[in-house]
Each structure stands twice: as C-alpha cells, then as structure tokens.
Amino acid sequence: MNIVEILISGTTQGAVYCVIAMGLSLVYGTSRILNFAHGALYTLGGYIAWYLMYGGPGLSFGLAFLATLPILFGVGVVLEAGLIRPLRRHPNWQINAIMVTLGLAFVIENGLQLLFGPKTKTIPAFIEGGISIAGTTVSLYKIALVFMSILLVVLLELFLARTRAGKSIQAVSQDLQGAAQVGINVNRVFGLALGLSVVLTGAAGILLAPIFQISPIGGWSPFLKAFVIVVFGGLGSTRGAMLAAFILAFLEAVVVATVGPGWSMPAWLIVLMVVLMIRPKGLLGVWEN
Question: Which parts of the chain span the membrane according to its record (predicted)?
C-alpha cells in the first residue's frame, strides 16, 4: 500500500467513523447515556434499507436510504421514551441505562437473525466503476461514500448551530438544570438527541453495506470503534469525535499498510491510553453538565 492508498483509505474510513462516532457522542453529551445498542442500531439501519430494496417495496438505493432515516429517527425517539426516560426516576439510573441498552443490543441482534436469518445480506453499490488518482484506482462508490458522510456531518453541525432545536440540544448538554429552568423541554431534547443518534449510526450502516455486507452480529466492531473515538475525542464533544475519527482512521491505514490489519485496534488502544494520560478528558472533552 503506497502513500496515496493510505490517504484514500484514511479519508474514506475517517468520514464514516465520524458519522458513527458523532451519533454516540451526541447522545452522551446531551443525556449522559453510553448507548451500548449503538452498534446494533447501525446494523438495523442496513437491514431496514435491505428490506425496502429487496424484501418489500423494491425501492432504489437512494429512496431506500431516505425512507430509512425517518424510521430510524422514530426508533430512537420511542426507545428514549419507552426505555430510558423511566429509568431517570430512579437512583443510579445511568448504570441501569447501560444494562438496558446492552440488553437491547442482544434483543435487536436476535430479532434480526430471527427475521432475516443468520446469513449476511448484500446491498450493491449504487454507482460502479472507478477513477485513477496518482496511479491508484479508487472506486466511485468510495468517493460518493466520503461525500455523503461529510454531508451528514455538515447537516448535523448546521442543525445544532442554526436551529432552535439544535440550540436546545447544546443548552441541555452544557447545563441541564439551567436549560430546564428557562423552559426547555428536556425530555423532548433527550428524545431528539437519541433519534438523531440512531439516524447517524443507521445511515452509516447503510452506506457501508455495499462494502462490508450486513450481519445480525455485525454491529459490535463499529460500536467498539465508535466508543474508542468518542473517548479519544472527549466524551460529549461531537467536534472532538470528528477530529478523533480522522486521526484514528489514518493511524489505522498506516498500521494496516505496515504491520497488518490485526494490529489496527491495538494501535488505537495504545494511542488512546497515551492521550488519556496526557489529557484525561480527551482531546476536546466535556464531562460536566
């Protein structure tokens, strides 16, 4: 693998890691929940899109992608209202939330396996062919993947910065009690944050399906990587997650090219430990409400 291939791989992986990790960071930053079902919801997005394309209406990739997003948002809102919100009435609810979301991950996995079977599913890329960059052939789908991932990140940042709902999310993230005192409906914000989080991770599951296929148990690796990215970037910081995603993606590309793919996660963890020894909050961490 030459330098051009490393750059291409790092950019592609970094863009997708960014989408997955920002979803996990968003919900933690807003409601201080570490959602262990994040990876299973990533897989769910891929399966919903596959069903819309091949098991039901027979939609195109683009229409299936767009139709899946509001479904995923609804799933997130329902999960927050039905599973997470009742836990907040009790002491140590955050520990309980971890256990509930962990159990939810297994429920989703087994439900998908029951509905779709254990075999992997494939979604073909909506664009074929490739172009040559400095003597290296890059598939057009990977280029589209980068642009679509960046578009999702930009739209999220604009939503948080420019809309009233987005500013409410930032207010709750910075000061929960203060936000409630000025009239912000914090429960609605929690639901909105989890809904957006599920949209982001599910969208990544759809975008990566043509490359990695879809499996009922395929969400644990994305979740683990998203978790490392979020801790590296700083718990609760979406921009920290964005920065960490690209740093670790390029590190992974270099490690895969020089040592082998089996060393990518150990390299991530070593760098994470070094960063946390220097900056315990991560790169741009926000711990307090």
Answer: 6-26, 33-53, 59-83, 95-116, 140-160, 189-211
